[in-house]
Amino acid sequence: MDATAISGGGRATLARSPLARLPDRALKYGLTVLAALILALIVYFFIRLVGEARPAFAKEGVFSFVFGNNWNIGAEHFGALPLFVGTLITSALALLIGVPVAVAAAVYATELCPLRLRAPLTLLVELLAAVPSVVYGLWGIFFLAPKLQGAEQWVADRLSVIPFVGGGLVTIPNYFITGLVLAIMILPIVSAISREVMSTVPDDHKEAALGLGATRWEMIRIAVLPYCRSGIVGGAMLGLGRAIGETIAVTILIGNAPKLGEHLFAQGYSLAAVIANEFGEAQGVHRSALFAAGLVLFVLTLLVNAIARLLVSRAARAGSGAGAGQAAGMTPLADAAAGA
After folding, report:
1. pTM of the model
2. Model pLDDT, residue 1
3. H or E element, residue 77
């Protein structure tokens, strides 16, 4: 019998009634409204920050505020360049130190770790995310920084010819310690995302590489990492966003000096830290300047997310394009296996 036969009521026999389709439509429209509310909330935050920051921008100018090097509360001069640079330096250090360690931990947990140790290792890495940021800050300033001060001074003396990296006297609160602690803080999220993506690599890809004579490391390099490139990049960008927005730990570790540090081991400031430190007593133009700093931080976070989306899409396209190239890359192994 034809499934589309019309019943007596003029409706297909197997078609669902409008009442039966109502939950689907309700779910569709409900999710659409929630997504629209999220976008509306972001727009509201932006408009509110712009409105609160307008007095500071009117006094200093947008360009002078963002790129001015003079944050002086008494004279009511507010240049956020030291805060902006401090945010970028510490976040970049966290990315450079934390992402390789996180990816290495994910590779070990998914490909090299014995099966009975995989769950405990994964749990230990994820527990790093449960430690409060204030604990990280106190541990960094009272334990880690004094232990590493001698090594930092040795590096600063040996690399004095490199601008901004070496030279000068190492202070206990500094950019490097802040970046190092932030690297530990972003390690769980980057490692978790990388590990989940690596667990989706098809077994036949890995078995094909091993069957063609690849070593365990070569299999990881040509079969696992290219497949996971987009996920690793996305996890790294999420970690970068976490590092940019961190407040309490950075406030404790960076030194709260509203000036550009002369080298990597000097004190500095960040956008999040200045808001946390000064907002409680701020009034007038000073309060508006802190809102302006929050606006700069908000825009910076949005830019990071946009760049992350671009990098993920590029990595996905490169990974799909490299999929066909992997066969060509394996041909020497295949020739060697055929010759054997």
Report:
1. 0.81
2. 47
3. strand 77-78
